[in-house]
């Protein structure tokens, strides 16, 4: 091989390597699925401790809560700002009633139905008659966010062990404020 051919092969190999690395870097930057997780513990002495156990976002009474919906919505906005219509799936919750600890996770990923799900709301109750009380809160919950549409149930959560909890998690769109990306 003469010097010119060697240079062509060398520079061609370098160009292919740079192109491959650039492609991989862009692919990582445009990661389309975001795993969101969190956990919280209810401190001893917290008023209405069983109620605080299902404060996945925050309580009106004292602001205590896990900020779960806020963290999921932040991930939804990351995708939306990248030009991807977001959705949320696979919401999982583990409640340890004995130690008053909650762990949760959710996947934020591209929407398959073309809607831009940009927010989440949740209502629920703990203790006796929690099922009926939680269900009765759903209609009012759907009035909390101006312009919210397409409310879709993501998770109907029941915690049968320890403190009984019934919680509904809904995703929604806001097409006037956050129209679906084309």
Task: Describe it.
The protein is of the alpha+beta class and 182 residues long. It is built from four helices and six strands, in the order αβααβββαββ. The strands form two sheets. Strands 1-3-2 form a three-stranded antiparallel sheet, with helices on one face. Strands 4-6-5 form a three-stranded antiparallel sheet. The radius of gyration is 23 Å and the shape is elongated. The termini are far apart.
Low-pLDDT runs of 5+ residues are none
User: Sheet bearing the most strands, described?
Assistant: 3 strands, antiparallel
Strands of the biggest beta sheet: in what spatial order?
1-3-2
| Sheet/helix structural class | alpha+beta
Number of helices: 4
Q: Could you estimate the helical fraction of the residues in percent?
A: 25-40%
What number of structural domains do the residues give? Answer: 2
SSE order, as H and E? HEHHEEEHEE
Determine the mean pLDDT.
91
Radius of gyration: 23 Å
- The amount of beta strand, in percent, is 25-35%
Number of strands: 6
Short précis:
With 182 residues, this protein is an alpha+beta fold. Helices cover 32% and strands 32% of the residues. The mean pLDDT is 91.
Key words describing this protein structure:
3-stranded antiparallel β-sheet, 4 helices, elongated, 182 residues, alpha+beta, 2 domains
């Amino acid at each position: 091989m003469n010097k010119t051919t060697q240079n062509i092969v060398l520079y061609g190999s370098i160009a292919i390597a740079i192109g491959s690395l650039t492609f991989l870097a862009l692919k990582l930057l445009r990661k389309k699925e975001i795993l969101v997780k969190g956990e919280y513990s209810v401190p001893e002495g917290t008023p209405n401790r069983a109620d605080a156990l299902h404060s996945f976002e925050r309580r009106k009474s004292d602001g205590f809560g896990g900020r779960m919906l806020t963290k999921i919505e932040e991930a939804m906005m990351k995708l939306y700002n990248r030009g991807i219509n977001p959705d949320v799936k696979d919401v999982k919750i583990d409640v340890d009633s004995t130690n008053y600890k909650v762990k949760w996770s959710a996947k934020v990923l591209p929407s398959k139905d073309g809607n831009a799900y940009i927010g989440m709301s949740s209502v629920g109750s703990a203790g006796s008659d929690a099922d009926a009380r939680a269900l009765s809160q759903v209609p009012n919950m759907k009035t909390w966010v101006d312009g919210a549409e397409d409310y879709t149930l993501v998770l109907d959560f029941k915690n049968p062990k320890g403190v009984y909890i019934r919680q509904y998690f809904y995703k929604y769109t806001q097409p006037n404020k956050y129209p679906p990306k084309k």
